[in-house]
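Hi C.,

You asked whether I'd gotten around to modeling the 105-residue construct. I have! Everything is below, sequence then structure, no commentary in between.
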Amino acid sequence: MSKAPDALRTIGEVSDVVGLPQHILRFWETRFEQVRPIQQGRGRRYYRPEDIDLLKGIKQLLEVEGYTTRGVHKVLREHGTKFARPSAAARGRRCCSRGAHSPQP
């Protein structure tokens, strides 16, 4: 049985969907204040659909578009989390020149 699209997901499920190991997701929680899954009993993490979209967007900015962590911080701070969503990146929206966000070579 599959879950409804708006159902909460565990860190293991999100790891599979986003394509990142669980320890990276936990690390990103410490680096990006916008990544805040719901934590319930015994510290178990539950991610909302918008959390998953944000993680996919951060991954896109870091791995595909070449932003550094500091660059992603700046994008999130200046333009909010909606800019980092995969749909925004797919449309080719850019907030400013990439050079200002320290892309990796």
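If it helps when you're writing up: The first helix runs from residue 11 to 18.

Thanks,
B.
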